[in-house]
Amino acid sequence: MTATMGDPAAGAGPVEPWDGERGPAQKPEEPSLSAGEWLGRNLFSSPVNSLLTVVFSLLVLLAVRGLLNFTFSEERTWRAVKTNMRFLFTHAYPQDQYARIWVCVGAIAVLSGLSVGLLARAGRGISMKKLSMNLMATGGVIALGIVLREPSAIVDDEGVALHRDASAAGGDSFVGWLDANAFAVLVVLVLANVALAVWFHLQGTYLRGGPEPRTAHGALVLVSVGVLIVQQYATGEVVRESFADAMSDRAWWWLAAALLAGAGAALWLGLGDARRRNTFVPAMYVFFVGAGVMVLSAWVYPWGHYGFLEGEFINEPGRTVAMTTKLPWTVMLVLLVATFELGRVLRAAGAGPKLRVPLNLLWVLTPFVLYWAVLRDPDLDWDHVLSTDLPMAVFFAAFGGLVVWFLAHPRIGEAGRVIAVVLVAVAALNWVAAYFGWYPMLQKARISFLLLAVVALLAHNFAGDRAQRMKLVAVWVATMAVFHWLVTLVNSPSTVDTPTDALIGGFGITLIVAVFTLLLAFPMGVLLALARTSKLPIFRVLSTAYIEVFRGVPLITVLFFFTLIFNLFLPDNMTLVDIAGATIGFSLFSAAYLAENVRGGLQAVRRGQYEASDAVGFTTVQRTLFIVLPQALRVSIPPLVGQVIATFKETSLLAIVGIFDFLRIADKVISAQSEFLGVKREGLLFVSFIYWIFAYNMSKHSQRLEKRLGVGER
Amino acid sequence: MSVSDATTALTEELAARDDMIVCEGVNKWFGDFQALDGITAVIKEREVVVVLGPSGSGKSTWIRCINRLEAHQEGRIVIDGVELTNDLRNIEKIRSEVGMVFQQFNLFPHLTVLDNIMLAPIWVRKKPKGEAEELARSLLERVGIPEQAEKYPGQLSGGQQQRVAIARALAMEPRIMLFDEPTSALDPEMIKEVLDVMKELATSGMTMMVVTHEMGFAREVADRVIFMEDGQIVETGTPEHFFTNPQEERTKLFLSQIL
Amino acid sequence: MSNTDQATLAATQSQRPPFYRDVTVVKWLAQVFTLLLVVFALFFLTTQALENLDRQGIEIKYDFLSIGLGSDLREGIDTDPDTAGRALWAGAVNTLRIAAGGIVAATILGVLIGVGRLSSNWIVSRMCSVFIETVRNIPLLVQIVFIWALVATFPDVELDQGPINGLLHVSNKGVSVPRVHIDDGFYQWLIFIAAGWLVGSFVKRRQERRHDATGRDTYPVLSFLAVLAVFGAVGWVAHPIFGWVGAIFDFIGDGFSSLTPVIVQVVLSLAALAAAAWWIRRFLARLRTPAGLMKLTDDDKFRIIFAGVGALAVIAFVLVGWPGLSSWIINSGTDLLGVIADKFGDGRTGRPIDIKAPDVEQVGRFPNPGPAGLNLTQGGAAVFFGVVLYTASFIAEIVRGGILAVPKGQTEAAQAVGLRRVTMLRRVILPQAFRVILPPLGNQYLNLTKNTSLAIAVGYSDFVQVGQIVYNQTGKTLEVISLWMLFYLACSLTISVVVNFFNIRMKIVER
Ligand SMILES: Nc1ncnc2c1ncn2[C@@H]1O[C@H](COP(=O)(O)OP(=O)(O)OP(=O)(O)O)[C@@H](O)[C@H]1O
Ligand SMILES: [Mg+2]
Q1: Cross-strand bridge partners of residue B226
Q2: The pLDDT of residue A21 is above 50
Q3: How far away is chain A from the Cα of C452, in angstroms, using its nearest Cα?
Q4: In A669-708, which positions are buried (b, 16+ CB within 10 angstroms) versus exposed (e)?
């Protein structure tokens, strides 16, 4: 872990937009405290505090021990999770098509690398002090865990733990006595701690005096820990190996702990206090190193090779992981690092601002393309494409382009409005005709007409000179091209054959539903928020009713509605598969919540901004798009991220409506396999852990963002 | 030449010019509180009118009615021959012809100074981008801060922000400028730089209606001073006349308090 | 005055713009168009649904509620309900029970953890934040399922078994604790309590006034509680004297059931008209100035027209849209009054409230938690602890934010004027923190109530799960889903009303 100096150039970049107003005040750096001072101030500042410290330390130790014992117990069948990794992440996506999954992950890695390298503020990164402290702490925690965890149970040839002879349990050894009286002993120890603390406090020596009182106190805490450790040898019904054996069995862990703590200590001692604080490593590099170590270990460490392929369980403990796992992940990491570096180079070349919009557009497009073009591998009917789809796309591009070109003329005046209203009427008529069955029309033509009508209504807001109009036409043509292409893909049957109506399951479907939900819900939420804060009463009432109804009912009832009976509400011969229905349900539900968040942002936009926009003559649309929304959305970023996390977590409800999502596989599928009958908690713990990693990182990121935007401050 | 002679001469000169703002019997209520009470006034082309009055007398309300930030409820307002009614086209026209400067600047904080100024010419006046930028830079030059073009409003001093706000209003090439206490949110040392810009604007022949408490500015630049109280126009006159020889008791009381 | 101020407009006429350029008209056209669009879309969907149902020979009817249900519920006030309606009622009670208990528990836990996070003790604050960050970043459903799987590993039920035998039983069948029974005469006793509340409030106000007048300590809150206690104690023995109250409700119920639907329709229509008239009157009153009624702008006219049209739409709905509404109101009103009358009926002379300890009984081959105690089944425990822990982590953050939101200056100012610590907390800090805390807290209560619906994943018999049983047996999916939504909307509405009530009260305190 070599120290990479934070590059000074990053700090002196272009003017950061809009921060000057809030100018974050630099907190004066406090000098580092010595360990004793720190303890005295944070843990033992008063008798009550000392009591809390002791009680809670013991609680922490108990909790950590419980968790470790649970996780590493010989009675856990972690093999169930390892074996079903593929199931957990993609369910029944065909194995021979698996390259498609990796293409998708690769595309996301490339985009992420580029975006982070190009757009993320380099910031100051992680200081050496923090890094070395974290390393040492991690090493320490691992060491503590090694000691705390109960010794492994002794297993027979089958891997089943040997059980203690019931009559021989207990006995009159010290350990047995401790076990029988553990609770009483702990109470005595805690009381002794308190008494000691009160005594020193009354003497007035606790805070002012030398280190002796605290040393005595610390010793008592250590004794308490010791009791906990000794006691665990007597607990439980299984036969356990000896303490020495246990410690030596955990040699790898000792090594890891020593390496981490050693690296941290080396950093700490190698640098003086000032340098420790003022040397920074970019956070991404720390991440890369961590990920690199993990990928490397996949090649060298015998994690074991498990799998469930074509109905066969693979069970080879002594090997490294499968080539189909380690190779792609290595490629992904290389892609990520390479594109990150590319992004940094581009950023240094000043391409950042120019690439921001295309990159964001790519992000929005990626889910659609990956899902419908890559994962689904549509089987295009070229005759139909050439005879119908293509001509229709060309027609709408050309006709719409003309309309836009004409309506965006600066002096179009009322004629433009008349044309727009006519187009709106045609678009509406198409739908009414669909209802009465007057004339047939492809659904995508109806939607295209509707899009065109909306664009025509808005066009005058974006009128301008020739160049501007050309740009508008180009945007329209591009939109039509992408839209018709995607619709054609959606309409073509898939060549990938899976047993459920969702293409993919497990964590894959969780992510896909979350992403599509947000893409659909976000525009709806913004519109709803605008309507709810509008001065026009009908808009306000409609939007308020929508929001309050959706916020008033549980998500699960909405999901049931959309998966069980929504098809009843659709016209004949139109059906939605469960997964599409669920996504719609999620979107409508999330939109209500997003709307409330955006509303908060809208209310933060000062009235003067509206007045100034009116005074310079903006139309309502222009005012909203150019002035109000950019400010409002910026303020509502933190709550919006919160809503993203909530939506991500809510996707677990897919399990209830019968879709094979992440949770359902862990909860129902694995525990039904003959090999792992009834094994549930392992899978659930794993699922919790993955959800947690994603949600926790997002929320941390949003907190940082909040701090940076100064939103949370009063 | 006596004061009244001067007044007569000015009156005649003004009568020959076009009417820019005509208000007739304008009434406005907020709930049951009457904020404007029968305002009748005419402002001529190239005239600089300063509106004075105690706090709450309805100065802001009046000036905001003139570009429809508030809608008046009775009476008529005609700007440069176009009447302010519910007509969308008229409102658009008047808004692009009347520039307004606010007490709190109201710059758009998420845009650079240059974008603040260019945005309306591009999207409202439909100017090509290059032309708009040229205009914006020349206006920044005119208000004396060409070097601040790339900064964000939050990074400027109050005086600079207000000058940007003036430039933003001017970028629409308005025929009338409204100022609502443009200097009251500023520290004393910044007031002068803003007033200088306004003076320059006045001498260049802009029609201006200014609500301000800067008596020096009123004396020096105004063609006419209008004194309001309780939503009514109490007294109108040239600055000399107004400051040296006010007719109404209420005016005298007001002047004795602030001078 | 210079003559330039003479108006020159008399000659011209102010012109009305054509409608398509009139701001007001365009505004309202857009709104009405949107409204029509929404109405049309809803109409489209409903007719499709009706048509499709018709084709399958299904009718939308709620008579399945009185049809028998073939299966038992796991728990609740009635585990073997006669009808689907009764089953749903038991499910609703289960939902409310877990929501109410959850709200109390989550609040206590959340406040403790929130305060703990602010503790100056490093370990305490660290532990609290680790708890928060862990719990709130894992989906609630995963937690519930996990707790369920964990409870499954608890020891089997046995006859004499603890942790605290006779008070707390924990087993793989769930958790049993003592239960508070509402017994005979409870509702009559409530009348005493209500009276005590009234008298107590009166006494409290008087004591407060005396405190204001004399400055002496008059203990208003204590007096209030004392009065309440006296009334409660007297009522404990004297409540049978209110046996006649039931008859009154019977009488009202009789009167109600003899109403004809037409009368109800007329009353509803008149109410709609009266509401519209009241709104219009208030609206016009706002426009009335001392100088007389202001000229109505077009916008005002549109609003008035809309109020009128709205009233007419309601009348049309009552008379034509759903003629059965009025008989439904009559029937359910009569039923409700009957139930109330029954609660107060004569001869209810028992103890109002009773507490029973949990027991374990062995009826068949295996011992099971008996009916005396309050039993949380495996699913119930999973849902309860799931929602409590999850919500507590959010409440903790809200509490922390609320306390941090009170500026330090407030504490200093309070100390400066010499307030005692308790007074300062009660009068200065808490009111301000509470003002910030209350609205998001209300949201959390709402979320908790809605989240109990996840019970369906672990088979706790809540409203949603029972609903699923019902529609699986009767095929009435649409009806059941509509009941779900109505039930939860009603819950949400109640919670928001309560929270808003306190919110407004807090605002008054603040003034
Ligand atoms: N939106 C509004 N709603 C209700 N009353 C208002 C509103 N705007 C202004 N008023 C009232 O109208 C009266 C005139 O206000 P106005 O802002 O025009 O006064 P002003 O002369 O500009 O005062 P100042 O010198 O303090 O700016 C005041 O009494 C004010 O309270
Ligand atoms: Mg004002």
Answers
A1: B51, B236
A2: no
A3: 9
A4: bbbebeebeebbbbbbbbbbebbbebbbebbeebeeebee
What is the ipTM metric for this complex?
A: 0.92
CA B70 to centroid of ligand 1, rounded, Å: 11
Cα–Cα distances in Å, from A440 out to A433, A437, A483?
Answer: 8, 7, 21
DSSP state of C239: G
The mean pLDDT of C350-376, rounded to a whole number, is 76
Q: Which of C175, C172, C179 is nearest to C164 (CA)?
A: C175
Distance CA A599, CA A223 (A): 56
Half-sphere exposure of C118 toward its Cβ, with a 13 Å CA cutoff?
Answer: 15
The DSSP 8-state label assigned to residue C373 in this structure reads S
Structure tokens at B210: 């200014």
Q: By alpha-carbon position, which residue is closest to atom 28 of ligand 1? A: B56
**Cβ(C25)–Cβ(B36) below 8 Å:** no
| Residue contact C124–A539, C-beta within 8 A | no
Pairing state of beta strands C168-171 and C163-164?
A: antiparallel
pLDDT at B3: 52
Could you tell me how many helices (H) and strands (E) chain C has, helices first?
Answer: 16, 10
CA distance A113 to A337: 7
The reply to whether residue A49 touches residue C456, judged by beta carbons under 8 angstroms, is no
Q: Report how far residue A690's alpha carbon sits from residue A669's, in angstroms, rounded to the nearest whole number.
A: 18
Q: How far is residue A232's CA from residue A453's CA, in Å, rounded to a whole number?
A: 74
On whether any CB of chain B is under 8 Å from the CB of C289, the answer is yes
Task: Report the alpha-carbon distance of residue A131 to residue A124 in Å, rounded.
Answer: 13
Q: Which amino acid is at A220?
A: L
Q: Is B100 on the interface with A (CB under 8 A)?
A: yes
Q: Which residue of A has its CA nearest to C36?
A: A538
Distance B100 CA to ligand 2 centre (A): 13
Contact B42 C8 (CB under 8 A): yes
pLDDT tens-place string over residues A117-164: 887 765 667 888 888 888 999 999 888 888 878 777 777 776 666 776
**Are residues B153 and A21, on separate chains, in Cβ contact within 8 Å?**
yes
Q: Nearest CA to C480 among C57, C48, C55, C67?
A: C67
Token representation of residue C505: 């009260």
What is the pLDDT, as a whole number, of residue A444?
86
B179 closest CA partner among B171, B170, B187: B170
Q: pLDDT tens digit string along C446-498?
A: 999 999 999 999 988 889 999 999 888 888 888 899 999 999 999 999 988 88
Report how far residue A599's alpha carbon sits from residue A597's, in angstroms, rounded to the nearest whole number.
5
Tokens linked to A653: 């409800």
Per domain, the residue ranges of chain A are 38-72+164-237, 83-124+286-371, 380-485, 505-714
Give, in order, the Cα–Cα distances in Å from C483 to each of A625, C45, C96, C205, C467: 41, 19, 15, 44, 9
In terms of average pLDDT, the best of A188-192, B26-30, C5-9 is B26-30
> For ligand 1, what atom is nearest to the CA of residue B231?
14
Q: Which atom of ligand 1 is nearest to the CA of B63?
A: 18
A143-152, B121-130, B170-179: lowest mean pLDDT where? A143-152
**Beta carbons within 8 Å of C234's beta carbon, 6+ residues apart:** C192
Residues of chain C with C-beta less than 8 angstroms from the C-beta of B76: 9, 14
Fold (CATH) for A505-714: MetI-like fold (1.10.3720)
CB atoms within 10 A of CB B2: 7
Query: What chains are in contact with A, requiring at least 3 Cβ pairs below 8 Å?
Result: B, C
| Among the bound ligands, the one closest to the CA of B55 | 1
Which residue's entry shows tokens 């920074």? A280
Nearest to A532 by CA among A630, A632, A614, A458: A632
For residue C424, pLDDT over 50 is answered with yes
DSSP 8-state assignment for residue C297: P
- To test the contact with chain B by mutation, choose from C5, C8, C16, C293 the residue with the greatest count of B C-beta atoms within 10 A, namely C5
**DSSP label at residue B121:** H
